[in-house]
Amino acid sequence: MNMSRRTILKAGLAGLAASAVAGCNNGAANRPAGEVSYWLWDSAQLPMYTECAKAFQRKFPQYSVKIEQNGWSDYWNKLVTGFISGTAPDVFTSHSSKYPLFADKGQVLAIDDFVAQDNVDLGIYQEGLADRWVGADGRRYGLPKDWDTEVYFYNSALTEAAGITADQLNSMTWNPKDGGSFEQIVARLTVDAKGRRGDQPGFDKNNVTVYGLGFGDAGGADGQTSWSWYAAGNGWKYSEGEPWGTKFFYGDPKFTETIWWWRGLITKGYMPTLAQAKSGVDVTATFGAGKYAITPNGSWMLGTYGQLKQVKTKLARLPEGPIGKRMSMMNGLADSIWAGTTRKDAAWAWVKFLGSQEAQDIVAKAGVVFPAVSASMPAAKASFAKAGWDVTPFLEPVEAGNVFAYPANPNAADVSAVMTPAMESVVGFESELSSLIKANDDVNQILSANS
């Protein structure tokens, strides 16, 4: 999300209040009786949720579903506008970093009474997912729909040319002092214009044609697909009270030394500059063009990487860090109900159905994301295997319990507004690592002022 859109989002949310939903009907009077409006942002998931809507309507003929899909940035801006204007959808796909503020502003309906009334079994979901949708106030604001972790996507032709085996890639270690075997592999995969590798004499770090490691951005406040697993593997935590951060630790030495090492890969020529990474061509397209040997990304990107037919892409585990574990962020989405809907029963029926195994089996067979219902996972694994993916590296951290939550708090937009430019300044070599201490102080002042 760029800064101008983030500012718009923050400004809009600042004006929200519980009273804003009073008397709003999001155009319900002009829609067919029993119709539920539903929004999502991922175009890859539109077909499978269209199938879910058909199954839902067959099961509950008194209801129908109208789906609207918008891209990530437009989605959130339009949703906030909908909250303010009373035109928000009855049900929407929600993110764990967004709903705490929406709930705090009275824009999301707590569904505890519905869950209790219908005896919804929350034990069917992957461990920990249902808990992520219980807010700091102890109330539930959604039912899980899917989950994700991170791995390395690698160009197998480039690794083979470098003499690096799959076993080496899947047994990498990392530390902030010398980068461990991970940095050695990244160096080996980096190639300059004269064909010299990053671990060979004469390597020209200023004239690189293939970077060993690609990245998309400086990571902002969460670093989900950039640095989060290095920091966690170094024993760092985002905050006290995880995932509901009450005091953040972006100035902690375990974090700053991690970023110091990570930024150093740019200095060594093994990773592009921040300006190159944000040049307008995204990380997957650059990977697909053969310019990056390895790129970290989340499981939701499997479909995108699968479309890169010019390269043969495989998956590798994240490296083992100094704490002796391979850590990964585990996040998940949920379906939530807008507090201003006048069709609560219909909206709940749709949310309940989407959270059921019946719906998540449809999601699983599409082979796009990992379903939240544990019993639906075998079908998902089979679908991904059919598409040529061995998704084991995504699953192992979850099975081992080596996962950490996406940081959440009602002030996430303000925290992001501080940490995104702070991280960009550091990774762009405009500021020293010590500036993160000041940024962390600013974040904690925001939390203190709003507690």
From TrEMBL:
**Signal peptide per UniProt:** 1-22
> Per its UniProt record, what Pfam families does this chain match?
SBP_bac_1 (PF01547)
Its primary localisation, in coarse terms, equals other
* InterPro entries (UniProt xref): Bact_solute-bd_prot1, SBP, TAT_signal
Sorted alphabetically, the keyword list is:
Signal, Transport
What is the superkingdom listed in this entry's lineage? Bacteria
Q: Where in the cell is it found?
A: Cell envelope
Family in the record: Belongs to the bacterial solute-binding protein 1 family.
> Protein name, please?
Sugar ABC transporter substrate-binding protein
The lineage, from the top, is: Bacteria, Bacillati, Actinomycetota, Actinomycetes, Propionibacteriales
